[in-house]
Fold:
Amino acid sequence: MPPIRCPHWQSSSICLLPELGTERRPPLRPCSKFATQPGLCASDGFLWIVGSHSLKRSKPKRDENDRDEALHRMEEIEREPNRFFLGRIPLVEKAPGLFAPVRSDGERQSAWIKYGKKHSALIKWLGDDPQLGCFLVVPSKENGFDAEGMAVRGNRVWLGLRGPVLRGHAVILDLEMKSKRSNPNRLKADRVDGRQRYRKHLLDTRGLGIRDMRFAGDDLLLLVGPTMSLEGPAFVLRWRDAVHDNSSGVISPTRIETVAELPYRLNVDHPEGLELWPEAGPEALLIIYDAPAPDRTDPDRFTVRTDVVHPPAAA
Structure:
């Protein structure tokens, strides 16, 4: 298919939005370091954002340090505040097809869960979880807690975890969010499963973690790949009728289907993003890669080539 061109593309700095609401601070704190916000989903006029909520172990940098210093560096575990963000920001259409985030638009307000330098409300809600609680102190890419996928429908938010993977099963958290009456800029999750503020769905993903998610009707498409920093297979899976699962539990394997097996290459082309792409045909999917291979990029034209995948049933 011909290249996809975006002549009116522009970037927006979420960190530099004006101060919001009554808290007198932006939703994401400006930071000189890269802060991972891996989960994005546009829904009903809002841009939803979730940080990884993960910890990060320092790299040894053996080429810069001797063996003892490198070992000492790996004792350091960092907590970056922006990783603990979960919220939504209104989108306004500035021109046909061109949307920009704003702090408010009439009654639509930016809102986010309570978070700080070391944790967030989400981490607090999960603290006593019998399956996930012990992984909250394990760094990401070591099978620690690491949110990457996000899907939204109405006030219901699904978070796909890259880690942990439990006996070959990936975890998807399912929350029903609402603004607090006393503070429209504060989000909280309703109690939906007994005393918990979340549902917890476990899916057999062959030992792979969630990298991205998109709804296709009432089904949820899952981009899955390795949990840790290693090369390995990646797939697009379909969780049939996901939107109607209203209680925690292990999903029947009969409701999880393989949509596509994705090619991978050593040290490059790690599947990271998933989008429906009907312009290319029924059920066509756009796959976006982290660490794209050099033959995918054109630095002079600021372009990168992605893949359009046609599942076998739609080929």
The radius of gyration is 20 Å. The chain is about 5% helix and 40% strand. The chain has two domains: 39-262, 266-315. Residues 16-26, 30-34 have pLDDT under 50 and may be disordered.
